[in-house]
């Protein structure tokens, strides 16, 4: 049974605030030690994913333009011939899979 961590206000702890900002900026956890003993781990809070895959959605105009420009670029290509050429180029001698 996992308990939720209890909040602790660090507003008036400037040294801890500096460390927190460093952890947030680097996105790397830090070990908090006392007399060579690790007593806690300070790690960035996870951000909720923006999509189900956890990757943020990009709205880069250059990416969208390249995607639109490539639309239909495979039209007229014999895909079976392409697959055979790729197989030969890779040097595969395995038999074709039958489903």
Can you describe what's shown?
By secondary structure, the chain is of the alpha+beta class. It has a domain at 9-44. It has three helices and two strands; from the N terminus they run αββαα. Strand 1 (30-34) and strand 2 (37-42) form a beta hairpin. The two termini are 45 Å apart. The mean pLDDT is 83.
Output the keywords.
alpha+beta; elongated; 3 helices; 99 residues; 35% helix; two-stranded antiparallel ribbon
Shape: elongated
Please tell me the overall pLDDT: 83
Share in helix = 25-40%
Structural class: alpha+beta
How many helices in DSSP terms?
A: 3
Helices and strands, in N-to-C order? HEEHH
Uncertain stretches: none
What strand order characterises the main sheet? 1-2
Rg measurement, Å: 26 Å
- Main sheet: strands, sense, barrel: 2 strands, antiparallel
How many extended strands?
Answer: 2
Kindly, what is the distance between the CA atoms of the first and last residues, rounded to a whole number of angstroms? 45 Å
Quote the beta fraction.
Answer: 5-15%
Characterize this entry briefly:
The chain has 99 residues and is an alpha+beta fold. The protein has helices at residues 14-26, 61-70, 79-90; strands at 30-34, 37-42.
């Amino acid at each position: 049974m996992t308990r939720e961590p209890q909040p602790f206000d660090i507003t008036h702890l400037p040294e801890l605030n500096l460390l927190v900002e460093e952890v947030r900026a680097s996105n790397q956890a830090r070990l908090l030690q006392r007399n060579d003993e690790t007593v806690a781990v300070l790690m960035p809070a996870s951000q909720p994913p923006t999509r189900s895959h956890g990757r943020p959605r990009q709205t880069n105009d250059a990416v969208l333009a390249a995607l639109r420009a490539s639309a239909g670029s495979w039209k007229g290509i014999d895909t079976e011939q392409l697959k055979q050429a790729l197989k030969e180029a890779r040097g595969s001698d395995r038999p074709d899979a039958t489903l």
